Amino acid sequence: MEKVRLGIIGLGAQGGAYAGFIAEGRVPNMAIGAICDIDPEKKALAQEKYPDVPFYDNYIDMLESGDVDAVVTCVPHYLHPEMGIESLKRDVHALVEKPAGVYTKQVKELNEFAATKPELTFGIMFNQRTNKLYQKVKEVIDNGEIGNIRRTNWIITTWWRPQGYYDQSAWRATWEGEGGGVLVNQAPHQLDLLQWIAGMPKKVYSNVKYGYQRDIAVEDEVTALLDYGNGATGTFITCTHDIMGTDRFEIHGDKGKIVVDDSETVTIKRLKTPESEMSATMDMQDVMRIFMGAGPGEIYDEEVLKFESVWGEQHTSVMENFAANILEGTPLLAPGSDGINGVALANAIHLSSWLGKEVELPVDEDEYFAALTKKIEEEKKSPIQK
């Protein structure tokens, strides 16, 4: 096999982009094996753009056709685990879109089944893990350059969505259709990066607003307090109503600090002496010198790095890496089993707000599923008209 024949399930915005990337040769070790969509209009579109590519309106038929070696699931969130399992059952490699699912109970089933098929490649589209900026941040943390983490703060409110965005279709921004709002639609990459870089928190306490500034049933405003279990804490803030949004990620350690602005600039400050040692050894004259403005060069070294991003490059990097794992055994940048962590964080944030108290991770899967089911039933009884 020289190229992996990818089956694209769902020819919407994301699936259409992936088809375009492959057709343009931006994923050299992949070819479009087949396209699947239940919408007749998408069939006409596919036949016009990719006349030589087989088209299916049933993904099981595509999986059993022999036309594909792997699939990517560009479908509503609830379907990712089911389609991942059905693919792997038929010895077809699976690249699931983010999030891996809506609740950990279903994602756990996917992970457990994938573990029975170690010969197959199971990945997830965490394209931000290929972002050189975040790879650098993780490298600095993993190398201990800023010491032990004491606090993380991420405010990511650059997801502005007008009411018209939510009114596009009946399933959007519903518990039954999407399984949540900003946490499961816009912010899964940040939830993944947060735990990938800083580790999973042990407890979460959240204040979440549902339909706060938009006429929707799900969350459009989130403030979560994270407890890492070793004294370190964090905050995660996100929303979809800030038209002048902020993207700022800070990681404070006992030997330095990292600040990421707009996912473009990284400022790394490395203390010349760990803070605890400074506290134990400095006299008041030294302290006054700091208060008077001592800093760069004397107290710490500062490094500022800027990164440029090309549209689609991160997605194509995941796809190329996924195919390379199939063809050559290259290690996966984003193993599919990692997808459960971001889902667990989103579940914990939701559950804490529903219960009005701090919750421990991992959350009780059955308790969360019961609470989500209740939200869906309430939504059916009083749907928001779009």
Automatic annotation (TrEMBL):
Pfam families for this protein: GFO_IDH_MocA, GFO_IDH_MocA_C
GO molecular function: nucleotide binding
Domain annotation Gfo/Idh/MocA-like oxidoreductase C-terminal: ranges: 138-361
Top-level taxon of origin: Bacteria
InterPro entries for the chain: Gfo/Idh/MocA-like_OxRdtase_C, Gfo/Idh/MocA-like_OxRdtase_N, Gfo/Idh/MocA_Oxidoreductase, NAD(P)-bd_dom_sf
Chain ranges of the Gfo/Idh/MocA-like oxidoreductase N-terminal domain: 5-117
Family to which the UniProt record says this protein belongs: Belongs to the Gfo/Idh/MocA family.
Annotated protein name in UniProt: Dehydrogenase
Originating species: Oceanobacillus polygoni
